[in-house]
């Protein structure tokens, strides 16, 4: 049993907890207050459970309680409007609009935005599946079920908090490992001109950013203890490795395509793969208690040095200095990975400067401030347009469902539109296809279960479907859609095993609803090009702040904290633009963002981040090998040049000192050199160049 639970990921564990919580609420209320109250309570519990995602305990109730309250309120509205089609249509429009406007609070409001719509569907289905109950009584039991589930969710979060933190770290380690392997592959291959095209790396970068933020939210919010401090050090180490990994893209293309260049790249790539193996083994340690990996920084450094020294390069090849610099840079990553493993092996608790107050700025925003709605009270807002679009689509769907010959379940058409219609065309198309496939699969399962007359088994399948749908809704929606179909069609079978599960109607409503959602995705559309000015301004501001923080000589402790905060903000802004680049590829060609320009903007943005990280490594890890006077003179000039350009100062041309490197000999000497100031000056020169190129690429976007 222990081995089984160790294999569960956070989403699976969360889904299992949701299924158990819904079952406990159902059985408890049913046993004390009867079948009618139990059925109503389970609906409220399911609606509240949508917002119960892996979170630290202190974040659970502020997310789950609003969903429970909204479920009760919506249920009351449906009960009062029952029997009047005009009132019901008006209620659908209002609920849909207000629900989707909650997306003004960001991605954390995604589950909350759907909870009232699901409550709407459950309440509409009530008169066909439940006994007699007044609208007020029905709404009260729905709210009770939601609030009881909120208590369960809080208790489960407390019980599972240590495991959820471990699993968040495991996900961050595995995401870093995947990114390291993909970087090793790109280094080993002849990347050349394709290095500027980052399309293949966007998904890995976004996934890594999401995994690291999830780990921050779980670990940094924990109470300070020896275990949490050790976990904090691991997250901080992964963040540093991510920076070094990004910097590893610099200069490798200058090694060339000849035989020595390929050998050098192969040696560097193999070392990265060894580090990835160590991270994978460390993830296994946290996930299942496997032994810590055996690592040795000295052995890895010696192996890398031997591999690089064995390369047969022409005498006096200037690339030897570049190889030496790349070897030194990779050595930092070796040190950091070994330090992470060594920290996990320690049994003592060394003092840490990372107090909860210093960690707080790195956590995701929380709460529901009304001020967040103000910027979206305009038709130019993508949130407002999606809310209006959804309100029109869901209202039409219910009206159409009521007019169809099989008008027994008009809310099925409504729910099909609600789950398929997303804020952008890419997600809508993906949901459309997965919804149809999942519904067909779910109906096949229901056809088999329709021959089962034992209600406890049907109830068990229903609870399992609740947990499965919750676990996979954001991972593999086709699985979630299959489970949702089971949930919808098993409810009448649980009440009357001999009833008709209405499979044909369910499939027809799904096809019609998916088609309606696709059509309405072109009503008040929010094409990605409309978001580019906002995303571009956010990214320019984030990069300007980060450049201002990073291009400093020996920053104070507070300045180093500001560097970490601005780095996180810059990565978040880059991920936002990268996500827009992914979504625009399925949009109509007439409104699609030009791939060349958006990829150029992302490429220069990531290169600027890599260069800023490389400067930080020089000034903090190699400051004893820099000429302090020259460094202190050059850093403010580069900082002013970068922040001015990123801040909107006009570009009058490219200075000769800011031109990019040539194919050979463009790097300073490194072998046998103590003074690395020329490398710092080169990095600063390239920072200015990349800042200018980034702004130029951004300005070419429509």
Automatic annotation (TrEMBL):
Q: Where is the Integral membrane protein YccS N-terminal domain?
A: 78-296
Show the stretches that span the lipid bilayer. Answer: 114-133, 139-160, 391-415, 435-465
Asked whether the UniProt record includes Membrane among its keywords, one would answer yes
Integral membrane bound transporter domain sequence ranges = 396-520
What's the protein's topology in the membrane?
Multi-pass membrane protein
Q: Which domain of life is it from?
A: Bacteria
**From which organism does this entry originate?**
Pelomonas margarita
Q: Which family does it belong to?
A: Belongs to the YccS/YhfK family.
Localization per record: Cell membrane
Keywords from the UniProt entry = Cell membrane, Membrane, Transmembrane, Transmembrane helix
Kindly provide the name given to this protein in its UniProt entry: FUSC family protein
Q: Which InterPro entries match?
A: Memb_transporter_dom, YccS_N
Q: Using the record, list the residue span of the signal peptide; answer none if the entry has no such feature.
A: none
